[in-house]
# Entry
Amino acid sequence: MAQTGTANNTGSATAPGRLAPWKIACGAIMVYVIYGSFFVAGGAEGFRVGGDGARAIFFHVPAAILSSVLYFAGMWYAAVFLFGKKQNDMEADAKSGICMELGALFCLLATITGSIFAGIQWGVFWNWDPRETSIIVMLLLYAAYLILRGAMAGKPAARARLSAVYALIALVPAQYLIWAVPRLLEGNHPTNTLRDPAMTSLGYKLVLYPSFLAFAMLTVWLFQLRFRAYRLAASREETL
Amino acid sequence: MSGNTAANSSVNNAGISVGNQAAVKAANWLPQAIALYKKDILAETRTRVAINSVGLFAFASLFLLTLATRGLGEVQSIRILSLPLHGITLADVEKAQIPAWTGPSKLGLLWVLLCFAAFAGLAHGFVHEEEAGTGTALRLTMNPQAVYVGKLSFNLTLLSLIAVLVTPFYMGLTGMHAGAWPAFLVVMLGGCLGLGSTATIIAVLASKARGSGALFGAIGLPIIVVFLMLLLNAANTLYNAEATTMRMVQDFGGLMSFGVLLISVSAFTFKFVWEE
# Structure
């Protein structure tokens, strides 16, 4: 991720306005996913509103998966910052912060799309089923991390250390969300509809898998942009 | 006493050479931790700031809580989601009824209370060191590991003391029963361990960041949410007469593991927060 970021950085500096092919592909796939979610995939059986309620999953599921992947990526960079060979590796800290920011964004998107889906499908916008509970806790952890970073704005070295430690501490509650929460709330909710047979129909696969790809590419792109912005700000501070 | 002499010797060594000092700091962290613990207990018995603030908070919220939940006795609530969407019969409603004010919910509320009480006062240990300027002395003379262990032990002692004082009153006022006593003690111990370890590491983070008061609650409570879920899980098992031994081991072990894991991660990362 870091290597491609650097290569791209220099590339776009020499030729402004030119997009890398994979970025064009990302846009094309995203357009296809939006089109496909309405026209390739049919209305899902057993879903309300003639199956149209299920179309949210093309955006909801990738966002939810990305929010947890980015969480672990952020923790990884936090660990690299604290325990890596390089002392005071501020780039690792920046990467950790960017992962957390993007993760919080996707977490919020997954929560909103999920809530809309729940409102249409189950008649309630929020009913504390295991996944909903986990994502709310994730959102809280993300928010706490970003609040801590924000509170330390003027002191980059201290901010890097404290937020890295907080990211690692938050790993403890995060891992319980995987196994303890579904069990704790098992009595409160009917079995989840995400494993519905309608999911496995060809039309859905044809849209959902490209959607995963497009979301992953978009994340890498966003990550690169944020990291490039960080580098520019850092080099500007050095020259001042 | 041996702890005091160890602390003194490392003070004497502090001025000689950095390498020597580092060796001394690393060598005897346990006596150092004990010395710090003794110092904190002694300071606490003189001023009683932490115990008074945590205790007063706990007792005040205890009375607020019992006042607010007075009418809850035998109220029933309905599990709405288990009702069919159309054609609800009386039998459906009766099947969906669950008691609102059960043993697990009482124990859960007791721990909500203890969490807020802990967050009202446990930051004191680190904030006090920074305010009095003694934090720098600790950093110079002590191994960070020793500081962590000393402060953690102090917080755990304080928290256990508060729990021992508050729980009998809470049981009397809300009519909470203990279930099987050994199991109840295990749950309470696991609770103290999880809450104390969370509050300790969050307290040092908050004392290093600006605006520590507000930040302490904001960054601590998301972690506490998961801890409370595990505690509720254990409480459900505690008051479930049909719970198997396997299930008890799993759920109580799950609660205990939270504290143990958090202490391990904190022990690894504490020095990055503590040293400047």
